[in-house]
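Q: Give me the 3D complex with zinc ion.
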Amino acid sequence: MHKNFDLNRLNVKAFAREEISLEGLQDLPQFTRLVELEAKLGTVSHADLPGSTQISWAIQGELVPVSGGGEQIWLHLKAELHLTMQCQRCMGAVTVLVSSDQSFRFVADEATAEAEDEASEEDLLVLTPELNVWELIEDELIMCTPLVPKHDVCPTLVPMSAVDEAFEEAQDARPNPFAALAQLKKKPN
Ligand SMILES: [Zn+2]
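A: Here is the predicted complex, encoded as structure tokens.
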């Protein structure tokens, strides 16, 4: 970890100016909204399963010169983890790789972000003196979590009628994943 940069309160402008790259592993339990999402959409808790409970992440700052003067502040972010969820075909536990690869460009204010958002492939964020990178990583991973997780090939074959009944009962019983995500998605400040 770079001693001059605290990812709870990152000075993005300074980080971009120095074009620093950082990467690491972070324990999942720190990300309470992701843990809650996994609990809502899964059947088995991570504690019962072997394997990784860590998020691997990497960030890189970049200053991009603009023709005519000035420069843009960019942050590139990659993050991934394995979540244990419920397969929507066989209803068994399925381990899903959730990964995000996103670039952010920082702008002066909300009005600029709204004006330029349509024409931009990157995400626009309003520049703040202190960015919580962990929250940003968590937001991105929540958005990349599949709403209908499935095995590529389900491990057991069940008669079709039984599958359909089980599927429909489970659909009635489980929380609406869109509602669950909406609740968890952090509201913009
Ligand atoms: Zn399955």
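A quick observation: The longest strand covers residues 71-86.
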